[in-house]
């Protein structure tokens, strides 16, 4: 008989025991380990996904920050450029103002120096011309300048027409008004009497003459009725001389200014660029 | 065991009345011990990390393959069937593979063993069917498609159990016997080829036995499973 009943029964039992043993030692642990691994991998994948999400979020945030920074940078650059332009314009204006101020100051100083020089020159010329004329007259003609000057004035006054005398005193309302005769030298008594007589003859006996000496006055004699002035001195000549000198000085300044102006313009160009 | 001994049941080491310790039982216990100790040695230091020992990897491949096969055939989760079907496959496969060990007589070459396994399948089919469909539901399968099919269905149950037992026994026994005969005729070369072929045959037989058992069990439970699937689909349509 190929089939043994006892063996069949024992084999069935053996098989069931083997099923139990393998379930306990093989399938249970192996499936448990596989499930645990799957859970772990799933957890890791989930964690990785979460990290990826977080990374994407952070990347997005960083991108936004970078864009913001770029915008801020552009804005700051634009602002800086604007500020620099404004500063540049301001500095150029200040430099122009400073140059203008310096120029004005220099011009003022030059004017003052010129004025002072001309004044000084005028005085020197007066004294020199006066001294020279006196000396020339004395040495060559044996004449006194003051005397000759007074004589010439008297000749001029005596030659004046009635209309001129009338015009001379038209500002005088009071017949007793005084006429100031100012001279740079002391008039002698004779000379005073001569001019007093002349005034009385042509104008009025009531006229009162006041003689004054003024050292600062330009060489000559000045007659001052109220509201009028008649000068007999070197002033016109000196004024003509002064005008000529002024022209010469200004011409010299013009050359200097043009010469000096070039570097200023160059400097100006440099600032502009 | 002699060439004249057609089954290892006939190799009896000890006997007392009906109780006998034959080669079938002895080698079955040897295979059981081998499987149990092997599984215990490998799984006692089991790891659920990504890095695992190679023997654990081997066991995982085997168990995962069985699990997948069950899932493919039954269309369900392998949970309740895995220990039963897996043990059938592993026991038969290991018994057949160990046939290459000189002196080892595969217990699957015993008709008693194959009968025992076939009986286990025979009993498990209605048990799984009843557990899934209930007693009445399972019995209804026998009168499908008509009541007249009842005797044929019952005959089919018995005949397929018999076919299971005899197919495995015949293949294993014949393989061993052919090997022994060829060893006697041409001892140098042909026995090796036949042994290699025997290993392949043994694995195929293990696979066939396990798959057929699974198909029988699945056919007993599938009717219920299909009903559940249809109900689910109807429910989806109604909801949709």
The largest pleated sheet of chain A is described as: 4 strands, mixed
Beta-strand proportion of chain B: under 5%
Q: Could you tell me the radius of gyration of chain A in angstroms?
A: 60 Å
Proportion of residues in extended strands of chain A: 5-15%
How would you describe this structure to a colleague?
With 273 residues, chain A is of the alpha+beta class. Chain A has a domain at 144-233. Chain A is 77% helix and 8% strand. Chain A has helices at 5-141, 145-158, 162-168, 189-202, 235-272, and strands at 178-183, 208-213, 220-224, 230-233. A four-stranded mixed beta sheet of chain A has the order 2-1-3-4, covered by helices on one side. Chain B is mainly α and 240 residues long. In chain B, 72% of the residues lie in helices and 4% in strands. In chain B, a hairpin with a 2-residue loop joins β1 (12-16) and β2 (19-22). In chain B, α2 crosses α7, α3 runs antiparallel to α7 (190-239) and α4 (111-133) runs antiparallel to α6. Chain B is globular, with a radius of gyration of 21 Å. The model of chain B has no long low-confidence stretch (mean pLDDT 83). The interface between A and B is large, with 34 and 48 residues.
